[in-house]
Amino acid sequence: MSPVDYVRRPMPKQEPFERVRNFDEVALGYTAELAREEAARCLACKKPGCVDGCPVGIDIPRFVGLVADGEFAAAIRKVKETNALPAVCGRVCPQEEQCEKLCVLGKKGDPVAIGRLERFVADREAEEGAGEVPSLPPHNGLKIAIVGSGPAGITVAADLALRGYQVTMFEALHAAGGVLTYGIPEFRLPKAIVRREVEYVKSLGVELRLDYVVGKTRTIDSLGETFDATFVGAGAGLPWFLEIPGENLNGVYSANEYLTRCNLMSGFRFPAFDTPLKRSARVAVFGGGNVAMDSARTALRLGADEVHIVYRRSHDELPARAEEVEHAEEEGVIFDFLTLPVQLIGDDRGWLTGIECRRMELGDPDDSGRRRPVEIPGSEFVMEMDASVCAIGNSPNPLISMTTPGLEVGKRGNIVADEETGQTSRERVWAGGDVVTGAATVISAMGAGRKAARSIDQTLSTPV
Q: What would you measure as the largest C-alpha separation in the chain, in angstroms?
């Protein structure tokens, strides 16, 4: 019997001094040899906790076992039974807080690198041009409208297309993918991969309509006249601000605008693309999540001399993935912990020149379980900055809720939906993903999509 291997295989990646000035993908992926070595570490548990930790229920031991045996095509088929976006999830999902967190090997060493293996089999399939479209059942005569083409919408579309429904996705922007396209930088998730995953869903017979703003072009009620059910997966595109003086100055961005200009509108390719992002020398990013890390690392690649993460708690409370924090640190992002912005300062031309901040200290834990930051009186100081990016969270755009009578919404404008089914207060209207929860992870949105697809199918296939 072979000894247990507690050490995971490292992922090859660009060196920090190389990658900090390009938008190429940082992580380079496993070779076939590394993938097989990593997969061979799996213990093939009889009661695999990793599956319980996966929001979309991938048969992880089986797919990992197939990788270990070199059966890469069979492995990606197994993944795609429950996940329509394997190349995306393998890159951006927080496996360390989900499937890998429950891996038995993690009790004494490193858990199996499930996400990296998922990425490997998806990329391998694409490299070999071996993508397979599963056999589709005959259309059952029922039509489904999907509002939004992000992770939740794509998951519902794929699941229902595989059940025989005629599915149409409506996307407000000029490119599909939702937050995968406009929100996650090229160096972390290349857009060619998002397009590839969208094309797979379209190959299942799903129709995609771009530049189609539900709530303006048509309302949810109008869609209900044509479609048998509607799923709303419109995301959370309304940014939050700090609501401090000076937020109307030039050089002050929301993370939504900053990343959308760069990702969806190819601002990082200016002047080849005519979407300019002003080069700033000193940039402050407010927040400590993945979006804050993405914004800070983008600013470096756009040519900033110095980039700061300004966060009111300490390093231990950062909500971003450990890997993203590590990459930001490697690239030279400066972390200003226990620091609260209280005022943005500008010049007589209306441009940001500095940020007045106040020092903080940690008090007792709040409702989130993290220690509450408490202001230290008289600790004010000024940081010289010529740009700031606010990355503290988002709410859903109110357009759909404002144009859909009887649709229940929460205090932050999120659509209220049943956690297990996605059913909203409106008959035959379901919702899931960030439009329900607020900004969260790609895989949690996909998990909500799977639940909603199951509920839609059960509802429409049950005789009245």
A: 74
Phi-psi region of 2 (alpha: psi -120 to 50; beta: other; left: phi over 0): beta
DSSP string, 144-164: EEEE--SHHHHHHHHHHHTTT
50 closest CA partner among 129, 117, 122: 117
Angle between helices 191-203 and 151-161 (to 10 degrees): 30
Mean pLDDT confidence for 278-292 = 94
The conformation of residue 110, written as its DSSP 8-state character, comes to P
The residue-averaged pLDDT of 150-170 equals 96
Do β-strands 387-390 and 229-232 pair in parallel, antiparallel, or remain unpaired? unpaired
Mean pLDDT of 76-98: 91
Residue with tokens 């858990």: 111
Whether the CB-CB separation of 246 and 344 falls below 8 Å is answered with: yes
Nearest to 12 by CA among 113, 140, 133: 113
Cα–Cα distances in angstroms (integers) from residue 215 to residues 147, 232, 441, in the given order = 10, 11, 25
Q: By three-state DSSP, how is residue 138 classified?
A: coil
Instruction: Look at the chain and count its residues.
Output: 464
Q: For residue range 20-63, list pLDDT tens digits in order.
A: 989 999 999 999 999 999 999 999 998 899 999 998 899 999 99
pLDDT at residue 17 is higher than 80: yes
Within its chain, how far is the Cα of 291 from the centroid?
9
Radius of gyration, CA atoms only, the chain: 23
Tokens of 173: 């922007």
What is the per-residue pLDDT for 369? Answer: 82
- Burial degree of 335 (CB within 10 A; 0-12, 13-18, 19+): middle
In sequence order, which residues have a C-beta less than 8 Å from that of residue 336 and are 6 or more positions away?
A: 308, 309, 310, 311, 357, 383
CB contact set of 184 (below 8 Å; sequence gap of 6+): 92, 259, 263, 294
pLDDT digits (tens, 9 = 90+) for 42-54: 999 988 999 999 9
Cβ pair 396, 402 in contact under 8 A: no
147 and 221 Cβ atoms separated by less than 8 Å: no
Domains of the chain plus CATH, in order, are 16-128 (1.10.1060.10), 143-236+395-461 (3.50.50.60), 241-392 (3.50.50.60)
> What's the pLDDT band for 274 if we cut at 50, 70, 90?
confident
Q: Has residue 115 got a pLDDT over 80?
A: yes
